[in-house]
Amino acid sequence: MIWNKTIETMSRNEMQELQGIRLKRTVERMYHNCEPYRSRMQEMGVSPADIRSIDDIVKLPFTSKKDLRDYYPFGLLSSPMSEIVRLQASSGTTGKPIVAGYTRNDLNIWGEVGARCFTAYGIGKNDVVQVSYGYGLFTGGLGAHAAAETLGGTVLPMSSGNTEKQIMLMHDFGSVALACTPSYALYLAEAMRNSGYPREEFKLKIGVFGAEPWTEGMRKDLEEKLGIKAYDIYGLTEIIGPGVGHECRYQNGTHLCEDHFYPEIVDPETSEPVPHGQMGELVFSTITKDGMPLLRFRTRDLTSLNYDTCECGRTSVRMSRILGRCDDMLIIRGVNVFPSQVESVICELPELEPHYLLVVDRGSNNLDTFEVRVEVKEEYYSDEMGKMLDLRKRIAHRLQSVLGLQPDLKLVEPRSIERSQGKAKRVIDNRKLK
Ligand code: DLL
Fold it and tell me: Is 80 exceeded by the pLDDT of residue 305?
């Protein structure tokens, strides 16, 4: 099923034309209503009249997370406060949060793109949708809520936490879809297993997972443990929240709602566009929002784009799985490491649980230390030294060949790594404190 067939199956030419019209209109509004954008454009010698088609986007300035901090809280709004009906925020790594303001129209767009996502996963009007993303300033809860409600499904607004009750209501109310972070889904899977309810008494079929990077291996694990199809949902507060992109039943890339959020890929260092299909930093311009439209926002997320038509019939551009954020890349003894690379190895090995933690530090000799802690499955966890040493050797060898770096591997007992109810914290980098 496709929610908005006209848009989602539009030809590339028609889409580009639509994007051009929408970009032009947005730039005009921003130029007149948002002082920081006006002065930035004036400095660059660009005026709204220079924007004639979507290709002219490269003339426009980039927006960074720093800009959002510099104009905190409301400096980048393009609508008066009287038009803003909602504020959301994301906690950054430093001090003040990133704030987003929505007009009534923006909230309608959010519901529309959310409904496209949920329809693509096969969720329908008769389905109970359990929303276990956190409600509040975080966009996960209210975003998934709007998606399910716009679609006409039955929303169960659980928020995150209270795991026993989640399982009880999932069972009693017959939730068909579960929307939460992949790491919380893992936690819920364990709790379901220990709940005493037989699996066949649950109606759960569909997972709507996102808000943090996750791998194919993690998908397989979740699908097996929960007995569902697990789909990716992508989004970020600055752009709107969850609903910027979604997978379809072919699970072969994340379709972007590009009639609202125009994507580009640039080299994170040089800011130059990268050749088609190549990995780089994802950049978005919102081309329909009124409250806080952003031009060429640097997401820091690393991915690539594919413009081929999907088997599902959608023509919308697909992005590959997010490898991680440029800021999440660890440089350990000069080697670049993404937590998702470690996850992909862990999920390949049947002896391991997908619960892990990376601890990086700097020793007294000034050399980086890199510890990977990972849980061994109950049935493989053994008191026999020999068995554990053998397992450890095999995993260490695999990590070395994928990462190009030898971590200090610690195999830990099942359930000893802290579980997450929202976005998982998988890295402790103590070097930052020194
Ligand atoms: O995480 C919005 C969201 C909520 C998306 C629920 C999906 C589901 P922020 O807190 O602003 O917003 O964080 C945005 O999270 O730039 C990515 O780095 C990461 N992220 C979000 N979705 C995915 C995903 C929400 N599906 C940041 N895969 C983004 C990988 C993701 N990373």
Answer: yes
Supply the residue whose CA is at minimum distance from atom 10 of ligand 1. Answer: 90
CB 235 less than 6 A from any atom of ligand 1:
yes
Taking a C-beta distance cutoff of 8 angstroms, is the pair 167, 195 a contact? Answer: yes
Task: Note the pLDDT of residue 88.
Answer: 98
pLDDT interval class at 131 (50, 70, 90): very high
The count of other CB atoms within 10 Å of the CB of residue 170 is: 25
The pair phi, psi for residue 275, each rounded to 5°, is -60, 150
Superfamily for 330-433? ANL, C-terminal domain (3.30.300.30)
Q: How far is the CA of 117 from the centre of ligand 1 (A)?
A: 14
**Domain boundaries 1-326, corresponding CATH code:** 3.40.50.12780
pLDDT score, position 2: 98
Going by C-alpha positions, the residue among 299, 288, 240 that lies closest to residue 30 is 288
What residue ranges do the domains of the chain occupy?
1-326, 330-433
For 326-362, write each residue's pLDDT tens digit: 888 899 998 999 999 999 999 999 999 999 999 999 9
How much distance in Å is there from the Cα of 389 to the middle of ligand 1? 37
Q: How far apart are the C-alpha atoms of 16 and 21, rounded to whole Å? A: 9
Q: How many other CB atoms are found less than 10 A from the CB of residue 1?
A: 13
pTM (2 d.p.):
0.95
Question: Would the CB of 211 count as within 6 Å of ligand 1?
Answer: yes
Q: How far is the CA of 288 from the centre of ligand 1 (A)?
A: 20
My answer on whether omega of the bond before 73 falls inside 30° of 0, hence cis, is yes
Compute the C-alpha angle 225/226/228, nearest 5°. 120
Instruction: Using the CB atoms, write b or e for 36-58: b if 16+ within 10 Å.
Output: ebeebbeeeebebeebeebeebe
